[in-house]
Amino acid sequence: MNYLADVRTLARKDLLLELRARDTLPAMLLFVVAVFVVFHFTLPAHSSDLAASGLLWVAILFTALLGLGRAFVPEREQRTLDGLVLAPCDRSAIWLAKSLATLTFLVAAEVVALPVFALFFHGVDGSTVAGIALADLGICAVGTFLGAMAVATRARDLLLPLLFLPLAIPIVVGGVGASTASSPGRYLGLLALYDALFTLLCWASFEYVVAE
Amino acid sequence: MIQAHALGKRFGDKRVLRNVELAVPRGGFALVTGANGSGKTTLLRLCAGLARPSEGELRVDAERAAIGYLAHEPLVYRELTALENLELYGRLYRVPERRERIGMLLERFGLWDARRDRVVSYSRGMTQRLALCRVLLHEPALLVLDEPYSALDEAGATLLDELLREERTFVVATHDPGRVEHLATTRLALA
User: What residues of chain A lie within 8 A of the CB of B77, using their CB?
Assistant: First the structure.
């Protein structure tokens, strides 16, 4: 119970910081809408829905990357990660809370992004929404973990995409498969397996990421 | 409470601490002095458990919950108010009677009237006072203080003088040892 209370306390702090600073969510919203507008004009007329579905996943991935890049900015700028690491709570609670906050921002961006996508391209079916929901979990779990690693380095802005994008390939494969395949079940299964495996790995190893 | 033997710390090829010997008994006061870059902050981070030694041994007989660490930075969120920052840390440290304790500390350090202001609007001295509130919130038995007088005015410094006379174990690093020299039971000059 204490663990969940710590996660709630830390996630509440991240949401409050965003509410005050409004650094992350507006940027994600503007970015994802701008990307769809650009794609709308770059995709040749009469292109297939399959191509548009691929672009949807590109937009989601890079929008998430934008949010992940900002996840640890308050901790980096104000060196508050030391304060959190010193607290006698399980350090993985920091990762879990940050992942949940980033997930909230990403879902909020998608709530706007999906209707915009439907307006410009084509409607989004249930399996695509399920794929996005599962992908969001993996993106936020792995991305937040890597964000914590990158924040300690000087090349953090470069390092996060370099580490994250290769690890996100299974998410893209699963997501695009769930959006386009006639039987999306196995792709949704792949995403669920990815989520379970990487969430467990990140949870178990976060302690070593924040220990100097 | 703290025992260090042949303690060293490297960052890559750079050695920032070498062969440090330190023994601080429970209730003792260790005064750490040294020029810029001599490794004072690194030693304090090691004592607080924020870093691991590269060489030698370090034993700190205190759990994380019993350590209060005052860093160069206040370790508070600028976009949160003083109350919100202390609530955050109070919850994480599971401070009993949290509200009362926070109120008492804010009163003691003269921040009660500014408790609902965001830290970004605080002066450097007020921020340092808030950092001291954060450090004391969970009643730590071991206080590790890095340049604690930094940015404090005379009234704030007097409050800190009172704190340093309390029954706790202290490790204090400062450029200006004159103010606490008389309290020190252990002295360590880093070269």
Answer: 13, 17, 74, 78, 80
